[in-house]
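dude i think i finally got it to work??
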Amino acid sequence: MMEAKKFYKSKVFWFNVLAIIVLIANAFGFTGFKPDPEADQIAMFVILGVNLVLRYATKVPLKF
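look at this
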């Protein structure tokens, strides 16, 4: 049986942290522009797609 890895070694965890930081920065106008709603939808689909791919590729469980 595989040993669980620490959560901070997870690509999924760090990708989601990065996505949250970008979303918060965008909400507070840090980027200096407001993309149209279609661009926001595309970004969310990309984030969901990357999450699905990373989850599928994950073979080792996490431990906190």
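The radius of gyration is 15 Å.
im so relieved honestly
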